[in-house]
Design brief:
Order of helices and strands: EEEEEEEEEEHH
Shape: globular
CATH topology of the largest domain: ATP Synthase, domain 1
Largest sheet: 5 strands, mixed
Helix content: 25-40%
CATH superfamily of the largest domain: F0F1 ATP synthase delta/epsilon subunit, N-terminal
Radius of gyration: 16 Å
Bound molecules: adenosine-5'-triphosphate
Oligomer: single chain
CATH class of the largest domain: Mainly Beta
Strand content: 35-45%
CATH architecture of the largest domain: Sandwich
Strand order of the largest sheet: 2-1-9-8-5
Distance between the termini: 28 Å
Number of helices: 2
Length: 136
């Protein structure tokens, strides 16, 4: 479709989203980036973060854990360990994950700090996206 980007988000659990959008913004490991139709091709690794999709006057938020983005002029493919559309986020589960991670981080010597920090980050961003959903 002219002046649109096809966005595919794929995880080991399957296709999370495949739709035409006007703009995509994501958090790469080298910083945030935005993609409009016609963007030069590039590949980047992604950090745990939120994808922001613009469709006309609509903005949608999608949780993406670490993975890759492959950008071409008419397509963005996201390959992520896990991803959820805003409405697919279970807030109670994210809050429980956040609590577990915070408890682990308090016992700093016994635990895998990097793993617990990443779990905390995933839970925090899931909750942030779910809060945007409530605010709409
Ligand atoms: P948890 O400890 O609750 O499993 P996690 O951050 O370790 O959280 P992930 O490894 O990112 O979970 O994801 C494992 C699977 O569970 C993925 O399919 C992911 O989409 C799903 N998932 C995890 N947390 C949530 C959530 N709060 N709402 C919806 N799906 C979730």
């Amino acid at each position: 479709m002219e002046n649109k980007l096809r966005l595919d988000i794929v995880t080991p659990h399957g296709l999370v989203l495949s739709e035409d959008v006007d703009e995509v913004a994501a958090t790469g490991t080298d910083g945030e980036f935005g993609v409009l139709p016609g963007h030069v091709p590039f590949i980047t690794t992604l950090k745990i973060g939120m994808l922001v999709l613009k469709k006309g006057s609509d903005t949608e938020y999608v949780f993406v854990s670490s993975g890759y983005a492959e950008v071409s002029p008419d397509k963005v493919v996201i390959l992520a360990d896990s991803a959820e559309k805003s409405e697919g986020i279970d807030v109670e589960r994210a809050k429980a994950a956040m609590k577990r991670a915070e408890e682990r981080l308090k016992k700093a010597e016994e635990i895998d700090f990097v793993r617990a920090t990443a779990a905390l980050e995933r839970a925090t961003i899931r909750i942030q996206i779910a809060e945007k959903r409530v605010a709409r």
